[in-house]
Amino acid sequence: MTEGVQPHERLNAFIADDPIYKWLDLQDLWGEGNVSGNLGSYLSTDKLYRRCEHPRCKTGRPFNRMPGEGMYGTAFHQEPGLSSEQMHDAAWLAAGPVHSLTFLCTGCNSSVFQCWIEAHPQNRHTGRQRVRKIGQVPPYEISPSEDLLDALGDDADLYKKALACLSQSYGVAACAYLRRILENLTVRLAKESGEGGELGTVPEERDMETTIRLANEALPDSVKIPGRNPLSIVYGRLSVSLHRKDDQECAEIAEKAKRQLELIFTRIRDERRQRRQRREYEDVMKELESGPS
């Protein structure tokens, strides 16, 4: 569990904000030896906080748990990426009960949020008790804002694909898409630095260190870190994750990298816009100065 985050806060974030198929380890949440019996009791929460899209709200609101919800049956839900052999493995078919949770917005008293959580009694490999969200209504949001799409430019389609992968907890694929976006960005920035004119569309891996170093010089001051290269940090974490981490671990890294890339892209766009406005301002001032007195 993230340091400083209380168990109920993490549980609420899992229910309200996490993508489907992402695992939550109940021992990590509540502590070793504190989880036994009916796992549904450890999912119990009377209130959560999430954004309400009703016209009367359009902001974050508390949602109250609606009465009468609970375990409504058992089912097997395929783990993303399972082979046909694993599908027929009896150990995989020992799925736990599915819990239905429904919440009503306290602001508009109209918007309903519902999700379904599968509680596995035991994980095949670790013996730890885990749960995962297998669906929700409204669906998990994967549409970037128009402002962000504008900042991303030609990389917007790759970013949408990364979000689609994250929505299904396909972390490895999400890291791959985000790294390609970062490679495209570093090439463009390196060329702008004045020393990267010979770079191709995407440099060879052996040249990425030089490309990232040049690109860092062209970053806006607002995202530079003295003594460090933020582009190198993000690229390194994505690369290591692709080679050494599983889908869940990659998804966690991809989520953090995504937020950093969003900030970098918007700051670059905003700084260029400010420079353009400054040039326009200076050009008009020159025209005024050189005009008839």
Helix and strand layout, with pairings?
Elements: H1 7-16, E1 23-25, H2 26-30, E2 47-52, E3 59-65, E4 71-74, H3 84-87, E5 97-105, E6 112-120, E7 130-137, H4 146-152, H5 156-167, H6 171-192, H7 208-217, H8 230-244, H9 247-290
Antiparallel strand pairs: 1-7, 2-3, 3-5, 4-5, 5-6, 6-7
Helix pairs in contact: 4-9, 5-6, 6-7, 6-8, 6-9, 8-9
Describe it for me?
This protein folds into two domains: about 5-135, no CATH class; about 145-280. It has about 290 residues and is of the alpha+beta class. Residues about 70-80 and about 85-95 have low confidence and may be disordered. Strands 1, 2, 3, 4, 5, 6 and 7 form a seven-stranded antiparallel beta sheet that branches. It has nine helices and seven strands, in the order H-E-H-E-E-E-H-E-E-E-H-H-H-H-H-H. Helix 5 (about 155-165) packs antiparallel against helix 6 (about 170-190), helix 6 (about 170-190) packs parallel to helix 9 and helix 8 runs antiparallel to helix 9 (about 245-290). The termini are far apart.
Short description:
Helix content is 44%, strand content 16%. The protein is of the alpha+beta class and 293 residues long. Strands 1, 2, 3, 4, 5, 6 and 7 form a seven-stranded antiparallel beta sheet that branches.
